[in-house]
Design a protein that fits this description.
This protein is of the alpha/beta class. The protein has helices at 3-30, 61-73, 84-92, 107-112, 153-160, 171-179, 190-199, 229-244, 247-256, and strands at 38-43, 52-54, 57-59, 76-81, 98-99, 113-115, 120-122, 124-129, 145-147, 164-166, 185-189, 205-209, 218-220, 223-225. Strand 2 and strand 3 (57-59) form a beta hairpin. It starts with a helix and ends in a 7-residue tail after the last helix.
Length: 263
């Protein structure tokens, strides 16, 4: 092989090597989100006050929070409303970058997914007809039919205290199951019921707050694909900035009539 061919071959190998490195670096830079410059967010859009529709537009605490996080992190935002039973699976299928949907940071989920730092702390409640005087704590649901969405921490807690879980696709459905006597009560967040009670002028239902020594306040965080540390760092920094400048507290008070961002 002539010296000219050797030099040409060597130069070609260097070019290929540099090209691979460049591609690798580009992939590493852009892999934190599915679409460069845009944060794609999965949520239900049917779970007030977290996310819901008003005149066809998405609104709610987590909608406003997601917009604020995206802005702080330097992203545009795209929402992908998805039913609860497909929401977490959609993250694995790369339909969105994050899921923000009042998701409790359970040990099982932490093993399979990456989470942000908590942005709210949610207390559990048992919701029932106003005439029901038999349920005063989680210990009273043993053997009873209790509504909770399959795959949620609420459903896990129903099972933990011996209740028979009846799956409900969304909050409003759970409330109708109570009214139709298909369940005795529903396990959900106190905050969600208070908003529902106020916005729907509910007078036939009540709630009993579950003591934190029975069910501790749940840490709620933003869920991401396992190992996406680059996106996690950006999300955590944005949440910390929103906490420090008072935005997080203001959003909580706007939608919950109180600050649930502190443990």
């Amino acid at each position: 092989m002539s010296w000219f061919k050797k030099i040409s071959l060597f130069a070609g190998l260097i070019a290929i090597s540099l090209g691979l490195v460049a591609c690798s670096n580009q992939k590493s830079t852009n892999s934190e989100v599915l679409n460069k410059g845009t944060l794609t967010v999965g949520l239900e859009g049917t779970y007030a006050p977290y996310s819901y529709r008003e005149n066809g537009k998405l609104k709610g605490f987590e909608v406003d929070l997601a917009k604020a996080v995206a802005k702080k992190a330097g992203y545009k935002i795209k929402f992908v409303p998805t039913k609860w039973d497909s929401l977490i699976a959609g993250l694995g299928a790369k339909k969105f970058d994050i899921v923000i949907n009042d998701i409790a940071m359970t040990p099982e989920r932490k093993k399979a997914y990456t989470f942000s730092t908590p942005y709210i702390y949610s207390k559990s409640a048992l919701i029932m007809k106003k005439t029901n005087n038999t349920i005063n704590s989680a210990k009273d649901i043993k053997g009873l039919k209790i509504a909770a969405a399959t795959g949620t921490a609420n459903a896990d807690n129903v099972k933990k205290f011996g209740g028979q879980n009846v799956s409900s696709t969304d909050f409003s459905t759970a409330m109708e199951l109570i009214r139709q006597n298909r369940v005795v009560a529903a396990m959900n967040s106190k905050e969600a019921f208070l908003y529902y009670q106020k916005s729907q002028h509910v007078t036939d239902l009540k709630y009993v707050e579950v003591p934190t020594n029975q069910i501790p306040a749940q840490e709620i965080g933003i869920m991401m694909s396992k190992g996406n540390s680059s996106l996690q760092k950006k999300i955590n920094k944005a949440l910390n900035d929103l906490r420090e400048d008072g935005t997080l507290s203001q959003l909580s008070k706007k939608y919950f009539d109180g600050d649930i961002t502190k443990k």
